[in-house]
Amino acid sequence: MSNKQVISTENAPAAIGTYSQAVKAGETVYMSGQIPLDPTTMEVVSEDFRAQATQVFKNLQAVAEAAGGSLTDLVKLNIFMTDLSNFAVLNEVMAEFVNQPYPARAAVEVSALPKGVQVEMDAVLVLK
């Protein structure tokens, strides 16, 4: 018997492929990549980077809450951006959602992301 539990919420964009929004294994939650889609319309929220980054954090927050946690439980955050010159804005937005102690983090520039968005993030939480 597996202690693997699929996490799903209507407050974040629905999974549109062969994946789950998140999977909880023990007290660890592995969150799939989130892009800046409005969970109600499934449309990209804006062309503006700050608005996109904000929506991604809102989506991650919704999945974290569905798993019984919050963004304070983040231990690892992976960030994919199509332009690393947006890094300062990303840090400003992240500071609105995540407090110290900050999670471990990687940020990489990629050539393209789904639906032409500018940012995608996935994360790992450890619940208390």
Automatic annotation (TrEMBL):
GO MF annotations, alphabetized = deaminase activity
- InterPro entries according to UniProt: RidA (IPR006056), RidA_CS (IPR019897), RutC-like_sf (IPR035959), YjgF/YER057c/UK114 (IPR006175)
Q: Which GO terms describe its cellular component?
A: cytosol
Q: What is a single Pfam family found in this protein's UniProt entry?
A: Ribonuc_L-PSP
Q: Coiled-coil segments, which residues?
A: none
Q: Family assignment? A: Belongs to the RutC family.
Name of the featured protein: Putative translation initiation inhibitor, yjgF family
Q: Which organism is it from?
A: Gynuella sunshinyii YC6258
Q: Tell me the lineage of the source organism.
A: Bacteria, Pseudomonadati, Pseudomonadota, Gammaproteobacteria, Oceanospirillales
